[in-house]
Design brief:
Layout: H1 2-21, H2 38-54, E1 67-75, E2 78-86, E3 97-102, E4 108-112
Antiparallel strand pairs: 1-2, 2-3, 3-4
Length: about 120
Amino acid sequence: MKTFIHAVIFSLVTFAPVLSTADPGNACHFHGSKPAAEATILQCANQRKETLIKGNKLDKSWTSIKYESIAYVDGKKGKEWKVIFNNPQAPDQTKTNLFMFFTPVGNFIAANYTGQ
C-alpha cells in the first residue's frame, strides 16, 4: 500500500506541471532558430484570427475568410512572416485587410489593418 501511495504521489508531482501548462492556445509558441514552414505560419495565423474573433477584437464576418497571401519579408527587426487576410464584407470598409506578423520561427508579433 505504501508503494502504491508513493507511486501516486510521484506521478502527480511529475506530471502535474506538464498537464497544467498544456493549453491549445499556446500551440504556436516556438523556440530555436530554424524558420518555420509556411504551413505552420498559416495554421498559427488562423488560430490567432479565431482568438481575435472570440475576444471580440475582430468581427465575426472574418470567421470564414481564408488567407490571401503569405510572405517572408524584411521587418523592422529583421526577417518576419507577413500573412494577409482580405474581407470585402468587413463592416468597416477601411479595415478590409488584416495583416499578421510572425517571427521567423513562428511566434506571433502583431496584427493590424495598416500592414506596418
